[in-house]
Amino acid sequence: MALGRRKRDHQDLWVATCDLPRSPGHPFYTKLNGLLDEAEFDAFVEGLCKPHYANGRGRPGIPPGVYFRMLFIGFFEGLDSQRAIAWRCSDSRSLQSFLGLDITQPTPDHSTLTVIRRRLPLEVHEAIFTFVLSIAAVKKLLKGKSTAIDSTFIEADAAMKSIVRRDTGDDWKEYVRKLMAAEGLEDPTDEDLRKFDKKRKKKVPNKEWMSPTDSEARITKMKDGRTHLAYKTEHAVDLETDIVLAAGVYQADESDTATFSETLVKAQTNTKRAGSDSQIKDVVADKGYHSTDNLVWCAASGVRSYIPERASRWRRVWIDKPSACKHAVYANRRRVKGNRGKRLGRLRSEYVERSFAHVCETGGARRSWLHGLEDVTKRYLMYVAGKNLGVIMRALFGVGKPRALQSEGGGGFSSVWAKIVAILCTDRAFRDHLAIPIQQANFSPSKFVTRCNAFASHPFRVAA
After folding, report:
1. In terms of DSSP bridges, do strands 218-221 and 227-238 run parallel, antiparallel, or are they unpaired?
2. In this structure, are residues 129 and 386 in contact, taking their beta carbons and an 8 Å threshold?
3. What is the pTM of this model?
4. Spatial separation of the C-alpha atoms in residues 117 and 263, rounded to whole Å
5. CATH 3.30.420 domain position(s) in the chain
6. Which of 219, 276, 222, 286 is nearest to 253 (CA)?
């Protein structure tokens, strides 16, 4: 074999499309496209988005199915920004195949994603989230009887150094300068400002301070102890199937007890819209959600609550409260201490924290690059919908993310090959064409290629 030499960058004037390289596609995205096509995803999305586009005016825009698939790619590839999603799609032929684009078509730019996101309201994104739940309901993966709720914080696209006063609009330096002037210190230098600010006790309540770039972000303490402008996200997870029934985004200063009932109502509403008849019977949460009002509301709604109480030195007094409050608190306390309550508490810790790990950590949603509660909610809902698609894919084909093929435990190429063959052989048409029973699918790559070549050249000679 002769030595190949790299040629200088020189493009031909004309290239036939048949000569352009084609990608066979990633096995995971191929099966995911098959799942979406089976549910008629594109027809549903186009009908849903049609009222938000002009009829017969201008050139055709990007198909809505391409837009939502790109957001799903952001979750599966762990990308946190539109620029990263656009670059990744333009760089990968397999992702272009997943988007349904021809080899001569360019992939959408990041600015196009912004235009489409602003055009489509939040209700459309919520409908797409519910549509993914309906796929889970068809595949018998939506139970919803035992639901767990928990919350976490995601960073907003705003810096603490840029916060200003709500009443005067002064930044931090101007605010400290006025404090020094009130104490008789005029014309301080920057060094004087730093020394004075370091000695005094600092408080930055959300009622007095805001971000000029994102007025809906709130100052809060993150899980790692840092003070940051952030939003609060809350998941309601099905403890039987690991499906996220509802994902809400709230301002970070809203307490867990204030958003508990809203998230639970969203979970039940989404379950009904997805075509499931199941009712939420049990709700599990941590002690941050414990309040008498929430327990009474659960009891009135016919939902059994499993919410542990905060430690207190004093006994509860029920003289000035209705009897329903006492019964709800004591019944919840008894359920939490039982064996079933302890088991549901362990499942809550496992399933809900896992959903945050998939969406926020490996999914790329921990840091938001969008401004405003509505835009952040749109993006976050689609990432959680991608997480639900991963759960469905894992239940049907054994793989929940495309990168799972790269991390098959220590088997090297052979384990990855076995996983690819397992995915391909779940397709009945492909298996019938190659005459490969599922129980005989663990053969070597060389035999697999030989069988494919034999079928391509002599299709009628392949033994059944």
Report:
1. antiparallel
2. no
3. 0.81
4. 24
5. 143-157+224-373
6. 219
